[in-house]
Write a structure and sequence with these properties.
Layout (H helix, E strand, L loop, with lengths): L4 E9 L8 E5 L4 E13 L3 E6 L2 E7 L11
Parallel strand pairs: 1-5
Antiparallel strand pairs: 1-2, 2-3, 3-4, 4-5
Length: about 70
């Protein structure tokens, strides 16, 4: 059994985070694309916890700053 990295990030999902698909997260200065999601553990208005093959993520959801951003 391998040890997974834990990563806390802040941003907004570009599309819903779904098992089998890479997560796309708009952060302040970049767009993060993960490897395919293996499990979505918790979803709330302020936080999404999900897991990829190598990393367990805690996404602190930030509100969209403009109408042009595609937020879920």
């Amino acid at each position: 059994m391998s040890v997974k990295m834990n990563r806390i990030i802040s941003g907004s999902p570009v599309r819903p985070i779904a098992v089998g698909e890479p997560a796309l997260i708009r952060e302040t200065d970049r767009l993060r694309r993960t490897t395919p999601v293996m499990d979505v553990r918790r979803v709330s208005a302020s936080e999404i916890r999900f897991e990829t093959r190598n990393t367990q993520y805690v996404l602190k959801v930030q509100p969209c700053k403009s109408r042009k951003e595609n937020c879920t």
